[in-house]
């Protein structure tokens, strides 16, 4: 993934989303050929020259301080996730350890598996930055039935969403889930634009899915650490769950997601039914 191109496209997209009125800047004379702010206006908001901001938007963040990046983020009214993404891109250019960065893997420590094993009353799935499930408990595998085929490795979640037709039935709100997945991948790309696994995943999806290409090209970055989603389970029907995402600092790129239901609801009954259908002992297992 070209870090320079990522910076260029991200800043251009962000600049195009905000109008002078929203930003509270004075209009520059002349016809406005494109929606959003001009480079001069972003420079004015960030307190840098037009030439300096133009250099940044062309993808060159060498020597750009975090203070300037934060000023640009404020000027473009980026949210916390977008600001973090921009700072990560800046570190990719200026960080002294870029070539020696520890890359996230596809496995987790036995301690993480044991932790998930203690969470037996709720479905739990851990996945890495490439959206591969790396650990789960039995209830998590039962909930995400199609992602965990018997006697086979679990499916990559991003590939499932965009390339497997079952995903559109499994997720009634498919488009929302697809956008969330792309946003998570964008954040991962900002942390390490050179990650070969992520480059390969993005390339495959961009080649095979028009919808992924469109969403990826939108450069939308959001952190989804909690919320709710609907699942149309093939065995127990429609389930509404709330989710909480917890990063695992000891395993870079890995996050643990737990799924909860409101007590005394049809969704809670469906989870109870899944629990009774689990034939194997309720024990977590590494998935990769």
Rg, nearest Å? 21 Å
Count of spatially separate domains:
2
Query: How large a portion of the residues is in β-strands, by DSSP E?
Result: 5-15%
**Known CATH architecture of the largest domain:** 2-Layer Sandwich
Low-confidence stretches: 97-104, 280-284
Largest sheet composition: 6 strands, antiparallel
Q: Predict the CATH topology of the largest domain.
A: Beta-Lactamase
Question: Which structural class best describes the helix and strand composition?
Answer: alpha+beta
Question: How many beta-strand elements?
Answer: 6
> Between the first and last Cα atoms, what is the distance in angstroms?
25 Å
Helix percent band:
40-55%
Mean pLDDT equals 87
How does the overall form come out from the CA principal axes?
elongated
Please give the order of strands in the largest beta sheet.
3-4-5-1-2-6
The SSE order reads HHHHHHHEEHHHHHHEEEHE
Q: What is the class of the largest domain in the CATH system?
A: Alpha Beta
How many separate helices?
Answer: 14
Pfam family, one: MLTR_LBD
Organism: Microbacterium pygmaeum
Domain HTH cro/C1-type: 10-83
InterPro entries: Cro/C1-type_HTH, Lambda_DNA-bd_dom_sf, MLTR_LBD
């Amino acid at each position: 993934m070209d870090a320079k191109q990522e910076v260029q496209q991200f800043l251009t997209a962000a600049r195009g989303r905000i109008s002078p009125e929203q930003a509270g800047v004075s209009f520059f004379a002349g016809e406005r050929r494109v929606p959003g702010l001009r480079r001069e206006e972003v420079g004015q908001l960030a307190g840098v020259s037009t030439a300096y901001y133009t250099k940044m938007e062309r993808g060159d963040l060498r020597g750009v301080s975090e203070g300037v990046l934060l000023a640009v983020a404020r000027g473009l009214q980026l949210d916390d996730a977008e600001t973090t993404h921009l700072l990560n891109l800046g570190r990719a250019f200026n960080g002294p350890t870029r070539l020696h960065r520890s890359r996230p893997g596809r496995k987790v420590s036995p301690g993480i598996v044991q932790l998930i094993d203690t969470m037996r009353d709720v479905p739990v799935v851990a996945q890495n930055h490439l959206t591969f499930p790396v650990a789960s408990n039995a209830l998590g595998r039962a909930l995400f039935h199609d992602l965990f085929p018997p006697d086979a490795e679990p499916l990559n979640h991003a590939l499932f969403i965009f390339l497997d037709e079952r995903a559109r039935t499994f997720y009634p709100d498919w488009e929302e889930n697809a956008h969330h997945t792309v946003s998570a991948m964008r954040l991962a790309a900002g942390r390490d634009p050179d990650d070969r696994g992520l480059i390969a995943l993005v390339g495959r999806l961009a080649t095979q899915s028009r919808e992924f290409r469109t969403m990826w090209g939108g450069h939308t970055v959001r952190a989804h650490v909690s919320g709710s989603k609907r699942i149309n389970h093939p065995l127990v029907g429609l389930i509404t769950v709330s989710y909480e995402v917890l990063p695992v600092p000891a395993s870079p790129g890995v996050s643990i997601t737990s799924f909860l239901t409101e007590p005394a609801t049809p969704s809670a009954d469906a989870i109870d039914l899944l629990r009774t259908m689990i034939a194997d002992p309720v024990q977590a297992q590494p998935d990769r």
